[in-house]
Amino acid sequence: VEPLPLxxxxxSIKALYPDLSWHFSLPQxxxxxxxxxxxxxxxxxxxxxxxxxxxxxxxxxMSRNNHPILLFSNNGEPIPADVAREIFIPFFTTKENxxxxxxxxxxxxxxxxxxxxxxxxxxxxxxxxxxxxxPA
Length: 136
Hints:
Helix content is 32%, strand content 28%. With 136 residues, the protein is α+β, with helices and mostly antiparallel strands.
């Protein structure tokens, strides 16, 4: 775990997926205390899932309460409520060739790092949003 400059980190993820439209709303000097490689895997998993849901836009916002929070949103097909209850269960998948480990692994990575990964309750928003909470 080391200080991770968030903007340059997200730019490196963005470079892997140039066909998506990326929007960042976070301070230019924002940093997180995180393991670069583990967090990279989380963001790659979330981005791949967004692409498979036919997303064209990714929006990453930062807020702070007692802990740094990132909101990772995409405009792909929404996750149905019955599926949303299951998405973090290992080996659960709705994809023909899916393994069902991406989101469960991502959640475990966040837990091991002292944070959390959750799906924001669906609302009238056109975006699916995952909430990544980091240790203070």
